[in-house]
Write a structure and sequence with these properties.
Blueprint (H helix, E strand, L loop, with lengths): L2 H15 L3 H6 L3 H6 L2 H19 L9 E7 L3 H5 L19 E10 L8 E12 L2 E10 L3
Antiparallel strand pairs: 1-2, 2-3, 3-4
Length: 144
């Protein structure tokens, strides 16, 4: 993962932790901004947090205290192939070999006072569009 990709992933993570969904929304590619509003992004994140609360030992909505970012060598062809036992990803047609740059994971971390280490993993496809690095696709998963 290059420095720009790392910075964009970190900026996206920090915006979510700060509950600045307007800013996080601006980091999405135009095709995602057209279908996911900033409040829709917040709803998706908070639903996942609420789902994990039972495992965390908390009874009120609690946001992550930090994050870690990691990239890997998965390419767009790999993403198009379904994982065993899984349905194929519904990747947007605008996500192409030409603009795809990196498949990365943001793991959102829980506090030491909770019964879990992490809330969830947010997998993102980083793309380059008009010279700018953006999030062109995302999906949430249980933390590894």
């Amino acid at each position: 993962m290059n420095l720009v990709q790392q910075q964009v992933a970190e900026e996206f993570a920090e915006s979510i932790i700060a509950r600045n969904y307007e800013h996080a929304h601006r980091i999405l590619a135009p095709w995602l901004r057209d279908i996911v509003t900033s409040s829709g992004l917040q709803e998706v994140i908070e639903e996942r947090l609420q789902d994990m609360m039972q495992y965390a030992g908390c009874h009120e909505l609690t946001y992550p205290i930090g994050y870690s970012v990691d990239g890997n060598s998965v390419d767009l062809d790999d993403l198009r192939e379904p994982d065993p036992g899984e349905a194929p990803r519904q990747l947007p047609p605008e996500l192409t070999v030409e603009n795809f740059r990196k498949w990365a994971c943001i793991q959102f971390l829980a506090g030491d006072d909770l019964d879990i280490d992490a809330w969830f993993d947010l997998w993102i496809a980083l793309i380059e569009l008009n010279g700018r690095c953006l999030v062109g696709y995302f999906e949430l998963a249980d933390p590894d």
